[in-house]
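seq:
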Amino acid sequence: MSYTILGRAIKTEYLAIGTLLSTVGISLAAASGGSKEPAPKNLQQVKESVKFESSSKEEEDLATSIKNFIKEAEKEGGGH
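struct:
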């Protein structure tokens, strides 16, 4: 049996092989991943990598107060 695709007769065997190869190819491409950035090694690098973008003065004040709270908590807890 065959199917007509773009005016040509394509056998079902070729369609099955094409489907299997496409599935394997897509799976391999997805599993290979991409380039990864190195993970931060210490707490300071983690803090520097987190960026707060505020769209208003209130959000900026909130982010600043949160940062100050974290600094005070680290001083009291000894940085743990």
